[in-house]
UniProtKB/TrEMBL annotation:
Residues 35-254 form the Metallo-beta-lactamase domain. Keywords: Hydrolase. This is MBL fold metallo-hydrolase. Coiled coil: none annotated. PANTHER family: ZINC PHOSPHODIESTERASE ELAC PROTEIN 1 (PTHR46018).
Length: 289
C-alpha cells in the first residue's frame, strides 16, 4: 500500500496537473446559435477560472457541470455586452450554491465611454445599482459570497497568483474600449487569450511567447473596413503574432457571420506562415493538455 501511494505521487509529480480548457461560448454579439465569448479553465476536473460572461455563457456554464464553489477567480476582458452580460445571472445563481468564500473579479480600468470593473459591479449591485437588492454581495456580510473587484490600470502589467495557476495581464488596444489580454500559466503549460484587440501596440508577440495555446479572437476577415480594423485583428495579424511568438496551437474564436464565409481563406492566410495547428472554436469545445 505504501509503495502504491508513493507510485501515485511520483506519477503526479511527473505528469503534473490535469489541465483542460473549455470554450463555453465561441460567438460574438449576433444571434447566430452560439453563446457569446466565455471560457473555463479546468484543473484536476474542477473549474478554477471563468473568463468572460457573454450572453448565453451562463447556460453553457451549467451544461459543463462546473461548480461555482470551485472557482478561484472571474475575468472580464472588457465591458462590451457580448463579454459581460451574464454576470448578474451568474451572481444570482451563486446565491443558491454552497459557496461562502469571496470571489475575485478582474477587469480593466474605465474611461469616458466605459466603466472600470469597480464601477461596473457598483452600477450593477451597488446601493443605487440596477440590481441593488443584491448589494450585499459587495460586502463581507453577503448572504451568498462577496465579489471583490480587481482593476488593471491602463498600461499596467499585473500578475495574480492562485494556488493552482498564475495570471498575467496586459492592456490591449480595442478602439476606445479599455481591454485586457491574459496569460494563464499552469505548471509548464501556458494559455494566452488575446481578448478583443487589433494589437496596434504590438504587445501580444512578446506576451504570447511560446504559449501552448493561443486563443485568438477572429471577428473580422482579412479585407474589411478601417473601423473594424481599429477593433480587431485580421487573420494575417494573428498569423504574424503566432509565428513570432512561436506558439504551438491557435484556436480561432469570437466567430461572426462576417467571418463565416471567409474561414477557408482565413486558414490559407494563417497557414501561409504558421505551420502549427489552427482550430475553429465551437461552443463547449474542450482542449486537454
Amino acid at each position: 500500500m505504501k509503495f502504491f501511494l508513493i507510485f501515485c505521487l511520483t506519477l503526479t509529480l511527473i505528469h503534473g496537473k490535469n489541465i483542460r480548457f473549455e470554450i463555453l461560448g465561441s460567438g460574438g454579439p449576433e444571434i447566430d446559435g452560439r453563446a457569446s465569448t466565455s471560457y473555463l479553465l479546468w484543473i484536476d476536473d474542477k473549474a478554477k477560472l471563468l473568463i468572460d460572461l457573454g450572453s448565453g455563457s451562463m447556460l453553457r456554464f451549467e451544461q459543463s457541470s462546473a461548480a461555482t464553489e470551485d472557482l478561484d477567480a472571474v475575468v472580464l476582458t472588457h465591458m462590451h455586452i457580448d463579454h459581460s452580460a451574464d454576470l448578474p445571472s451568474f451572481m444570482k445563481a451563486g446565491f443558491f450554491t454552497n459557496r461562502q468564500n469571496s470571489l475575485d473579479i478582474v477587469g480593466p480600468y474605465g474611461n469616458n465611454y466605459f466603466p472600470s470593473i469597480r464601477e461596473f459591479v457598483e452600477i450593477l449591485f451597488g446601493k443605487k445599482g440596477a440590481y441593488r437588492y443584491m448589494q450585499d454581495i459587495l460586502t463581507s456580510q453577503s448572504d451568498s459570497f462577496e465579489l471583490i473587484p480587481i482593476e488593471i490600470a491602463k498600461g499596467e502589467k499585473k500578475t495574480l497568483r492562485y494556488k493552482d495557476f498564475t495570471l498575467n495581464f496586459i492592456t490591449v488596444h480595442h478602439g476606445i474600449v479599455p481591454a485586457l489580454a491574459l496569460r494563464i500559466d499552469v505548471g509548464s503549460k501556458s494559455i494566452v487569450i488575446s481578448g478583443d484587440t487589433n494589437d496596434e501596440q504590438n504587445t501580444l508577440e512578446r506576451f504570447a511567447y511560446r504559449a501552448d495555446l493561443f486563443i485568438a479572437h477572429h471577428a473580422i476577415p482579412q479585407e474589411t473596413n478601417n473601423f473594424a480594423k481599429e477593433l480587431h485583428m485580421t487573420p494575417s495579424t494573428i498569423a504574424n503574432i503566432a509565428v513570432k511568438a512561436q506558439v504551438k496551437k491557435i484556436v480561432l474564436t469570437h466567430r461572426m457571420k462576417r467571418t463565416k464565409t471567409h474561414e477557408e481563406e482565413t486558414l490559407k492566410l494563417i497557414h501561409k506562415d504558421f505551420s502549427g495547428d489552427v482550430i475553429f472554436a465551437e461552443d463547449r469545445m474542450k482542449i486537454d493538455f
